[in-house]
Amino acid sequence: MRNSLIALAFMSISVGNAQTTEWKCRLSIQDEFISFRLLRNASGEFQILNGTETVQMELKKSSGDSLEFALSVFDASLIFPKNPGKEFSGWYKKGDAKVSGKGLQFSAQSDLKGDAKKQITAAGITSKWPIEFLDKDKVQDKGILVLKQEGNKLSGTIMTETGDYRFLNGEVNGTDAFLQTFDGGHAYYFRLKFSESGKALNGEFLYSGSGKQVFRGTRDETAQLAEGFADVAAGKKISFSAKDESGRTFTQSDKEFSNRPLVIQVLGTWCPNCLDETRFLVEEYGLKNQSVEFIGLAFERKDEAAYAFDRIATVKRKLNVPYPILWAGKANKDSASKAIPAIGGVKAFPTTIFVNRKGEILKVHSGFSGPATGEPYEHWRTEFRAMLREISKD
Questions:
Q1: d(Cα 143, Cα 132) in Å, to the nearest integer?
Q2: Across 69-79, average pLDDT
Q3: Distance between CA atoms of 119 and 214, rounded to whole angstroms?
Q4: Nearest CA-CA partner of 349 in 164, 166, 163
Q5: Which candidate, 353, 359, 355, 360, places its Cα nearest to that of 391?
């Protein structure tokens, strides 16, 4: 097994009269590598290119000879020298990791030979693949793997009833394939092995330094997820309690929310699907009926007010969030369920609650199908706008 590091190959490309520097990157995760690109433009700004997704980097700290960059809106950093040349080393760290202080070391090289090219055989695997994640042959979770093949390139995502795995990219070689992602907050790698008939697959999901889970699946183009809406709380009065950064406690009875249709977003700044939903809500906010109010109730991984409001402020600033996001407690489903008792339990982050102007809950939607899912994302847009019309009725 190779050491946990990122090997970076240095190259320069010209953009007009400006010079852009690009490193070809490989992040070691257990016994595999996740590939992505690190880009520095002529202004000195850095970005991570994760397949078709661009991950923004913002300078967080300059100390001694090193720079620390925050990655997207996550509590995660890339640390490397102030003057990165053709060879350098540094660290990738997560501030909200379960084991504090742990990270992945990375290094940069001026010349990366890489693995020899393998002969590519077309597999014809563009389809939907219902899959089961297993633990000692017991099904722990289910989802739908969505694959799109173009030559030897793969893209897609995994949809589940509580959310999706966002933008995955990879390659196929005969009956073998892989998918991967590194979005600044998550590093995932999926090994795939297809049957000779092309109707079944087996695989391994690698995450963090040692996490591993096996899965299996079959081809089914008609596969669909169960509806995310629930009526268990329909007709019940909404109640919640959360604080802003000044320490003021807000409830459903405050003038900002009383006698108004509400869209309540249950989220965490650590949750990638929540962030995709936040981007969606920001877009929809400007199109809504003016009588409707949006509100975010955030549950964070650390039970510390200063930490929670720092994370909330970062998300609001970077995503240009126009509606209030309040801190409602620590990030677990029990805590969220207690904070919003009327809905009978929070099944997923995010959860979206639709409330009419009488304060009555009309629908609760668990999970979020993000832009990586394609058609389900557009279907949710239609459903969401229909719900806004419904809660706006007198």
A1: 7
A2: 93
A3: 26
A4: 163
A5: 355
The per-residue pLDDT for 122 is 58
pLDDT of residue 102: 60
Torsion of CA 170, 174, 175, 176, to 10 degrees: -40
Q: How far is the C-alpha of 150 from the C-alpha of 146, rounded, in Å? A: 14
Closest CA to 97 of 186, 178, 169, 160: 186
CB of 202 closer than 8 Å to CB of 137? no
d(CA 9, CA 363) in angstroms, rounded, equals 51
Shared domain check, 201 and 233? no
Same domain, residue pair 183 and 214: yes
Q: Tens digit of pLDDT for each residue in 259-299?
A: 999 999 999 999 999 999 999 999 999 898 889 999 999 99
What are 175-231's pLDDT values in tens digits? 999 999 999 888 899 999 999 888 999 999 998 778 899 999 999 999 998 877 776
Residue 367 within any structural domain of the chain: yes
Within this chain, do residues 213 and 316 fall inside the same structural domain, yes or no?
no
Residue that the structure tokens 């760290």 belong to:
93
Write out the residue range of the structural domain in which residue 151 sits: 127-218
Whether 102 is in a domain gets the answer yes
